[in-house]
Amino acid sequence: MSLNNGAVRLDPGLEVLSLRLAEVDTPCVIATVISAAGSTYRKPGARMLIEPDGRITGLLSGGCLERDLREHATAILASGVARTVTYDMRADNDLLFGTGAGCDGCVGILLERALPDSRVAGAITTAATLSRAGIKTAMVMIHEGPAEHRGTRLWRAAEHELAAPPLALACASAIEAGSPEEVRWVDTSGAHAAWIQPVLPLPAMLICGAGPDAEPLAAIFRSLHFPVTVVDHRPA
Fold first, then answer.
1. In this structure, what are the phi and psi dihedrals at residue 78, rounded to the nearest 5 degrees?
2. Strand order in the sheet with 47-50
3. Which SS3 state, helix, strand or coil, does residue 182 take?
4. DSSP states of 212-226 as a string?
5. How many CB atoms lie within 10 A of CB 54?
6. Whether 149 contacts 171, CB under 8 Å
7. Phi, psi (5° rounding) for residue 143?
8. 176-204 CB burial, b ≥16 within 10 A, e <16
9. Measured between alpha carbons, how far is 27 from 13 in angstroms, rounded to an integer?
10. pLDDT tens across 49-88, in order?
């Protein structure tokens, strides 16, 4: 589905995390689903914020992975090095991670430390802002390669600051098609892999009629961070 043909995203996760990141002044961890096979609770592109005290914003499972992710987050906060963890729930034994996980799939999650002025926090906040303005962007999650290269960054259609030509081309292609892409490349620093997520706009909601029934409807859409316009021919 092309971005130019009205494709939208229904998940306001970027907006939710952006608001919470603006309130947090301590290092935390961003967990991003970058791969999924089989039946999984969330799909690639889903994100969760994990704070040092264990508070989370967002979910990546029905609760079966969050406790273990908190443990990994503690290590990420200490080292500052982004890494990927994989949960394979396709085994016959359903008692995984101390719970009876109902999902029968495999999920890969990129964990990275986020500071108020970090690259990942800036990417999430900027992507949410540009999405509201209708500007095409892509979130780039480099999950394989040298430690200093791993993590999330933002790429805009009008910019070419990403040095690796295969990565820049894949970002442009993902934005144009409005669908995610996985790209691998090799340069002088070694082998790399990245998952690219085009940031589609949220659906704009038009409510015709400003009667009493429009108020709760508008409130529901606004709680989802969808832009809402209410029109009525009556001046009052």
1. -75, -40
2. 56-57, 47-50, 28-38, 105-114, 83-88
3. strand
4. TTHHHHHHHHHHTT-
5. 11
6. no
7. -110, -5
8. eebbbbebeeeeeeeebbbbbbbbbbbee
9. 19
10. 999 999 999 999 888 899 999 999 999 999 999 999 999 8
Q: Which tokens sit at 231?
A: 């029109």
Residue 185's pLDDT is: 93
Q: Which two tokens stand for residue 202?
A: 């949220």
What would the pLDDT profile of 212-231 be if each residue is shown by its tens digit?
999 999 999 999 999 999 99
**What is the C-alpha separation between 55 and 110, in angstroms, rounded?**
18
Average pLDDT over residues 170-177: 91
Q: Residues, the chain, total?
A: 236
- Structure tokens of 123? 């990417």
Closest CA to 187 of 157, 138, 142: 142
Mean pLDDT of 37-42: 89
Q: Give the start-to-end residue ranges of the domains of the chain.
A: 3-114, 135-199, 205-236
Which residues, including other chains, have CB under 8 Å from residue 135's CB and lie 6 or more apart? 156
Identity of the amino acid at 6: G
The answer, yes or no, to whether residue 193 has pLDDT greater than 70, is yes
Q: What is the DSSP string of 123-143?
A: HHHHHHHHHHTT--EEEEEEE
CB 171 within 8 A of CB 165: no
d(CA 1, CA 18): 26
Mean residue pLDDT of the chain comes to 88
